Amino acid sequence: MHPLWKLLVLLSLLSLPSALHKQPWPDLTKAHANSKSTLVRIITQGLMKHNAEGRIQNICLLDSLNNSKHMAAGMVAWLIGGSMSLHEQQEGSANITNIKLDYGRIQMSVPKEWFSANISLEFDIDLRVRPFKNKTATTHARMNLSVEFWLEKDEFGRRDLVIGNCHVEPSSVHTTAVTEDLSPKIKHFVRNFRQNLEKVIPHQIEDQVCPLIGEILRQLDVKLLKSLMACCS
């Protein structure tokens, strides 16, 4: 055989396995994406129905800082660096605004019948306290909340939905100061406020959002989850 023909035959044989392997993947990828989008839609609609953003917005951060088991009593007064009456603390506020929730990260493992939902949250905290003449200092916070759930067979071979741990990932919690035009005293307070906020806010978010996610997931039909898995198998 002519060397050129040998080369052409060899190239065609090398390309054949590649073509065979590539062909099924577009449909499989599409099915995988559709399954994820279905779960995203269910979780999103459920959290919207239960007003998750409103619950987050109503968190009383100053009370949480003062009452949390992670903080010493009177933490707000201590952060300011001086005596601060209860009345003065009550006149202060830390309001959560501009909440953004991204529900789009869903992971699936078909062989293990396992799912993981990851929800990213971002919001601003407008802080005002009386000793600073009601000057508003805004802090931006962001974090990820994750929950795992899977199908587990009982002794009769029937599948039940099991909901795992729902928590804010500690490494995902970040706060940044937004307001720059502040006096050195206020900047010092805001820096301490942010550091202690990172210890308290994850637990507050978990208390508000995790019960809602649990309720949404418990309403999922096991047959639906099995069908979503089948689309990707």
Automatic annotation (TrEMBL):
- Keywords in UniProt for this one? Signal
Annotated GO molecular function terms are:
lipid binding
**InterPro entries the record matches:** Bactericidal_perm-incr_a/b_dom (IPR017943), Bpifa3 (IPR032946), Lipid-bd_serum_glycop_N (IPR017942)
User: Start and end of every Lipid-binding serum glycoprotein N-terminal domain?
Assistant: 46-220
Residue span of the signal peptide, if any?
1-19
Q: Does Nucleus show up as a keyword for this record?
A: no
Could you identify this protein by its name? BPI fold containing family A member 3
* The organism of origin for this protein: Pipistrellus kuhlii (Kuhl's pipistrelle)
